[in-house]
Design brief:
alpha/beta, 10 helices, two-stranded antiparallel sheet, 10 strands, 39% helix, single chain, eight-stranded parallel β-sheet
Length: 282
């Protein structure tokens, strides 16, 4: 069955779905929504693959180390954009990048990308050491992406200058294979221009349904380089704010994207689905 929409960034392997992950996934699949379950460290990457293995089609995984997990730290509800207090924050134990471990996971046939990786300077316990650790982990995952020929799933917060500098050293010339996706894009139109030149695509989620901060950059980026995501269980779109987010809510993101781009929701569904399939080879 061909999907109607593809949620390119969700975390249905997280604890928030521990009691009903299968029901959540089935609800999405029944609605024609496929998904990419994104790993953020060793255990969630392994669990993402386990989730994908349960389904014949429509559920895929990425594996990687999120920048906030490179040091010990606490992340609260406000930082994570959680309207539902019941989801709570979490404490990161801190993890060193293990290239061999992630390479082994990356070879799994249901793994379609490397990440969630990147840079996040929003809150760093030890700025100098923290930035160094993030850059090291990010560079190793770029190298892994190139080795296994699977695209990057990039996270960036308050760090676009450094991020683009690093990416530019690896992808100075656009090639036929997309190097990856900048997820939950929060940069400027100039950041977008530079990343477009490097061949990257961009995904947007529920925040665009209740904040107008992203409208300008959404209008700037060509639809053929845009994808849709939920980042579930976080940042549920209107009219589901305050609830746990889930992949079946992706339609609300597509509706808002259509409104901002002044096109039909059918155009958004067709184009973003084609884009996702092209980037991930699914």
């Amino acid at each position: 069955m061909n999907p109607t929409l593809i949620d390119v960034h969700t975390h249905v392997q997280f604890h928030a779905f521990s009691e009903d992950a299968d029901a959540v996934i089935r609800r999405a699949l029944d609605a024609g929504v496929w998904m990419v379950t994104v790993g953020t460290q060793k255990d969630t990457s392994r669990k993402a693959i386990g989730i994908a293995e349960r389904y014949q089609e429509g559920v895929y995984a990425t594996v990687g180390l999120h920048p906030i997990h490179t040091e010990k730290s606490y992340h609260d509800e406000q930082e994570l954009g959680i309207a539902n207090k019941e989801l709570g924050g979490f404490t990161s134990r801190g993890e060193e990048i293990d290239y061999a471990y992630y390479k082994k996971l990356a070879m799994h046939p249901r793994v379609v990308g490397i990440g969630e990786c990147g840079l996040d300077y929003y809150r760093i316990a030890n700025k100098e050491l923290g930035i160094e650790k993030q850059k090291k982990a990010f560079i190793e995952q770029i190298e892994l992406s190139l080795e296994v020929k699977k695209p990057l799933m990039v996270h960036c917060r308050n760090a676009f200058k450094d991020l683009i500098e690093i990416l530019n050293s690896y992808f100075p010339i656009r090639n036929s294979r997309s190097p990856g996706i900048i997820h939950f894009f929060s940069g400027t139109t100039d950041d977008a221009r530079r990343l477009l030149d490097l061949g990257f695509s961009f995904s947007f989620g529920g925040v665009i349904t209740f904040a107008q901060d992203y409208d300008e950059v959404i209008r700037y980026i060509p639809l053929e380089r845009i994808l849709v995501e939920t980042d579930a269980p976080y940042v549920a779109p209107a009219p589901h704010r305050g609830k746990r987010n889930e992949p079946s809510y992706i339609e609300e993101v597509a509706k808002k994207l259509a409104e901002v781009k002044n096109v039909s929701i059918m155009d958004v569904a067709i184009e973003t689905t084609k884009n996702a399939r092209n980037v991930f080879g699914i």
